């Protein structure tokens, strides 16, 4: 098929899009693209100061070729704190009647072991549990939305690193041993298990209870995108050689974040099935424009998905009203 780009997105006037990690990298480019098509974008960010700076940069482009037509709404949301997620969701619920698209985009990658405010290993806590809690708390607003082409979307950003992930439910939080890249892979596998299980539960409710829930859960990954995620990883490592290596890898292998975000934009606005996996169409799915692909077999393991869902519900205290 012809290469799909952000220019192929439909108009989003009157739509509300929530993007986590909207102040930098893929989140920043996604925010710019949604707003350019007329959407109101709620920028869910850990640092309000950095988010306001990012919003100012995007607004400064208004009226030019990269201008925006939509509004930007900056709000604090620290995915490493379930209280912060709850406060964000409550504030959004107070001010909005519906959410048409939720982009679970923010994440941390391959950092030394640490724990979130609630005692979870940080990569699992931020990348998966924070987004699980956020999606559950905003689910009623998604159910009430007109969405894009009549269907609301939950888009969960994974990574090709999910292929190295393994679920160990006896030590999900890496208390017995820890490998930062293995932990990252597990968190990205968890993203996919969640995205697919959410769609299965929506489908089951519509089939068995005639619930008529017009929400699609779609997963994506950006390939190798040149963002500051790699530099944060290098900075956390404390290894100057890693900083040099990441800079070189980004220059040689990375594609611009404006292209890397296309799978997320496609998942959010194109005609895709619930449970789809959107990835770049180029070499090793690391570069290129979005296409429908397939994640690894482990990501479709229904037993692991059920176990993860049950753990996540208990850990976060958030139940989905599906």
In short:
It is built from ten helices and ten strands. By secondary structure, the protein is α/β, with parallel strands linked by helices. The longest helix is centred in the middle third of the chain and has 29 residues, at 180-208.
Describe this structure in words.
- The protein contains ten helices and ten strands.
- Helix content is 43%, strand content 13%.
- α1 links the parallel β1 and β2.
- The model is unreliable at 241-246 (pLDDT under 50).
- It is of the alpha/beta class and 322 residues long.
- The strands form two sheets. It has an eight-stranded mixed β-sheet with strand order 3-2-1-4-5-6-9-10, with helices on both faces. The protein has a two-stranded parallel ribbon with strand order 7-8.
- The chain is globular.
- α4 packs parallel to α5 (180-208) and α4 (122-143) crosses α10 (302-316).
What descriptive keywords fit this protein?
8-stranded mixed β-sheet; two-stranded parallel ribbon; Rossmann fold; 322 residues; alpha/beta; 10 strands
User: Count of DSSP E strands?
Assistant: 10
Give the CATH superfamily: NAD(P)-binding Rossmann-like Domain
Name given to the CATH architecture: 3-Layer(aba) Sandwich
Silhouette: globular
Structural class label: alpha/beta
End-to-end C-alpha gap: 35 Å
- What's the rounded overall pLDDT mean? 91
CATH topology name, in short, is Rossmann fold
Topology (SSEs and partners):
Layout: E1 16-20, H1 25-36, E2 40-45, H2 48-60, E3 72-76, H3 82-95, E4 101-104, H4 122-143, E5 152-157, H5 180-208, E6 215-220, E7 225-226, H6 229-237, H7 240-252, E8 255-256, H8 257-260, H9 262-269, E9 277-280, E10 290-292, H10 302-316
Parallel strand pairs: 1-2, 1-4, 2-3, 4-5, 5-6, 6-9, 7-8
Antiparallel strand pairs: 9-10
Helix pairs in contact: 3-4, 4-5, 4-10, 5-10, 6-7
